[in-house]
Specification:
Keywords: Membrane, Transmembrane, Transmembrane helix. Helix content is about 75%, strand content about 0%. It is mainly α. The protein has one domain.
Length: about 190
């Protein structure tokens, strides 16, 4: 059995520091996969919105819609990936201060930074809210086209599919929230 002096030696503090530094947080694979998918969609929308590769003469506003959605998708991914990277870097390079000699102000600064990086940023959520609104607009624009329209299939189906996925996910999310609220009232 160790006495108190042995527990708080410099060697014990070094061992505690080594235990904390061996935990290496990696960049989440789900973030990488989601980013690749979103960037592919954004690049497709930007390509279709900027070039004359495919046409949709019945509704020329769809090109503006494609460009806005692509830019918002790129912006959301840049902000989200930067936040995740910063959090992973901080957790790997700034271990939690340990030991008896740690100043409370240092610990407080570390905890504040740690808590700040573990919170989800608000701006990507606002971008997704705008995306829901734009998805509803895009879905309505293309669904009201006449059945024999000359709008290219690539534009039509990519916009309708994207908008349907976003709107379906939103409906499921809102249903889940309503369901949770109803359960809490009981």
């Amino acid at each position: 059995m160790q006495n108190l002096k042995e527990l708080h030696t410099a060697e014990a503090e070094d061992q505690d520091l080594e235990k904390n530094s061996t935990k290496v947080e990696k960049f989440p694979i789900s973030t990488i996969i989601f980013t690749v998918i979103i960037l592919f969609i954004a690049a497709l929308f930007l390509f279709l919105g900027v070039t004359d590769y495919k046409t949709c003469p019945e509704d020329p506003r769809i090109y503006i819609w494609l460009n806005i959605v692509a830019i918002l998708l790129f912006l959301e991914r840049i902000i989200s990936v930067t936040h995740v990277y910063t959090r992973v870097w901080f957790n790997n390079n700034c271990p939690e201060p340990t030991g008896m000699l740690v100043d409370k102000s240092v610990m407080k600064k570390w905890m504040k930074k740690h808590d700040q990086l573990n919170r989800r940023p608000l701006f990507p959520d606002l971008i997704w809210l705008i995306m829901v609104f734009l998805s509803a607009i895009g879905f309505v624009w293309l669904r009201v086209l006449p059945s024999g329209s000359s709008c290219d299939d690539l534009i039509f189906y990519s916009v309708v599919t994207f908008s349907s996925i976003i709107l379906s996910a939103t409906i499921l999310f809102l249903s889940f929230i309503c369901f949770e609220c109803c359960l809490r009232k009981d």
